[in-house]
Design brief:
The protein has 483 residues and is mainly α. 73% of the residues lie in helices and 1% in strands. It is built from 23 helices and two strands. It is globular. The chain starts with 8 loop residues before the first helix and ends in a 14-residue tail after the last helix. The C terminus is likely disordered.
């Protein structure tokens, strides 16, 4: 048995300070490419600092390593889900399911309700793809051009685009952050999504209402050429029919029935591949290439879409970027990041450093409301200092998980707070990888758009408000069937 070791608060903070400095350096030197390896190395270096401090203080390496193994083991279901998400994204793209969502989503765009519709379309696309980045970089760029032509302020347009895109980043089961948050808190994916709807739906409704009011007070003229061009490009390339929505409907039904996420995503991937073979023969042949029978081409195309990079080219450059998928391969950087983060978190937790920090921070949390507010504030703090969305979920998640448990709160309370504050506020800081990326992609400075990202600003406040009124705050001692 290891004797109890006390590590001072400043020594417990030292690995986090080192991590912040390294992450800031990575953002400065590598920019968007920091997620390609630099941040992973930063996590391992910070973990090394934590390990050295722990060993000097008398904690045995075997104890630290057991903590690392336990930490990584807890993330394994999320890693498997991430791989299946890559597979599903690939087959849903080549099958025409996602293009159909984009096509019908664009149909609702009219000048009078442009901001409302832009936010809603981005929300639909990001839920379908699970990626705020790809949504902003594709549909978002096109919507920005349309909005400018209609005379809207570029910051307002960017705010509508980002608000919708980050709704999907929060709520889509395809999103890596939506999988990461419950993994950190200790709950499952679909419990997390259902519980998160309590704060997220009111936040997006308020956001859409604000954009609707602004839109109706703004004089615009009809400008449908760009939208028509996007829709035409999609329709000319894919067979677009409402029947394609049967697959998402089946997946949603299975989710409601609480079928395990891994099984749902696997079935969704396979059904997407089947739809590709049935409804998109030209796409299948194009992706497979070579002189194969159609059965061989179908198998090759589906396997390629599930496992590696695939690309569907249309006559419209704006839509082509959205029709690129990376399959399971595209998830490896995120998986690598999570494993490295689990190494850092495992050492910080097994050494008692996270407990030391959490015990000091939790002194400000006298009740459930202040605990959730403190957790939300910590997530925002890490977005502002660590410059990385994932770290703003991982570190507070590891810090506060035992605190929520000791207070008798179910883990979905924590996972929801992590997303309400950690996921959405990352884009509000120009030095954060998310803020830097979106500003670069849209060509609109973070300082120009952040005040119009109503969804991102409302979400953490809604999380605290719901806690303050005590609405459906789940306790461990209440009946499982209660909301």
């Amino acid at each position: 048995m290891m004797h109890e070791v006390k590590i001072s608060l400043w020594l417990a903070f030292l690995p986090i300070i080192v991590l912040m400095l390294l992450l800031a350096t990575n953002v400065f030197l590598f920019g968007d490419n920091a997620l390609g390896g630099a941040n992973q190395i930063a996590l391992l270096m910070a973990a090394s600092v934590a390990a050295i401090i722990s060993i000097i203080k008398g904690i045995h390496w075997n104890h630290l390593f057991d903590g690392v193994l336990k930490s990584i083991s807890s993330a394994l279901p999320a890693l498997l889900i991430l791989l299946l998400i890559g597979a599903l994204a690939g087959t849903w793209m080549i099958s025409g399911i996602v293009p159909a969502m984009v096509y019908y989503g664009l149909k609702i765009l009219t000048p009078t309700i442009f901001l409302f519709a832009a936010c809603l379309v981005c929300a639909v696309v990001s839920v379908a793809t699970g990626s705020s980045w790809s949504t902003v970089a594709t549909i978002g760029v096109a919507l920005l051009a349309i909005g400018k032509a209609l005379g809207f302020h570029e910051g307002l347009i960017a705010g509508a685009i980002i608000s919708g895109a980050y709704f999907g980043d929060k709520m889509s089961p395809l999103s890596d952050t939506t999988n990461l948050a419950p993994a950190m808190a200790g709950t499952d994916l679909f419990t997390h999504i259902r519980y998160m709807a309590i704060t997220t739906i009111p936040s997006i409704v308020l956001t859409l209402l604000i954009f609707l009011i602004i839109g109706f007070t703004h004089q615009t003229s009809s400008q449908d050429l760009e939208v028509a061009s996007l829709m035409e490009a999609v329709k000319n390339k894919f067979y677009i029919n409402p029947v394609l929505f049967l697959v998402p409907i089946i997946v949603i039904i299975l989710i409601i029935k609480q079928v395990p996420a891994i099984l749902v995503l696997l079935l969704g991937s396979l059904l997407g591949g089947l739809c590709a073979v049935i409804f998109q023969p030209s796409i299948v042949t194009e992706i497979a290439g070579g002189s194969y029978s159609y059965y061989e081409s179908g198998y090759i195309a589906v396997i390629n879409a599930m496992s590696s990079s695939t690309e569907v080219l249309t006559t419209n450059e704006s839509i082509n970027e959205l029709l690129k998928t990376k399959g399971m391969y595209g998830m490896l950087n995120t998986i690598w990041l999570i494993i490295c983060a689990m190494v850092f978190g495992g050492i910080m937790e097994s050494s008692g450093m996270l407990a030391t920090i959490a015990n000091r921070v939790v002194l400000f949390a006298k009740n459930t409301t202040s605990l959730i507010a403190t957790t939300a504030g910590t997530c925002v703090f890490f977005n502002a200092t660590a410059s990385d969305q994932y770290l703003a979920i991982i570190v507070p998640g590891r810090m506060f998980a035992p605190v929520f448990k000791n207070r008798g709160l179910k883990p979905e309370n924590l996972s929801r707070t992590l997303e309400d504050s950690g996921t959405v506020t990352s884009v509000l800081f120009p030095w954060n990888t998310c803020g830097a990326t979106q500003a670069s992609v849209l060509g609109v400075a973070t300082g120009t758009y952040w005040m119009y990202c109503f969804f991102n600003l409302i979400s953490p406040l809604m999380s605290v408000l719901i806690a303050a009124i005590g609405f459906k705050i789940r306790k461990m001692d209440i009946d499982k069937n209660s909301a």
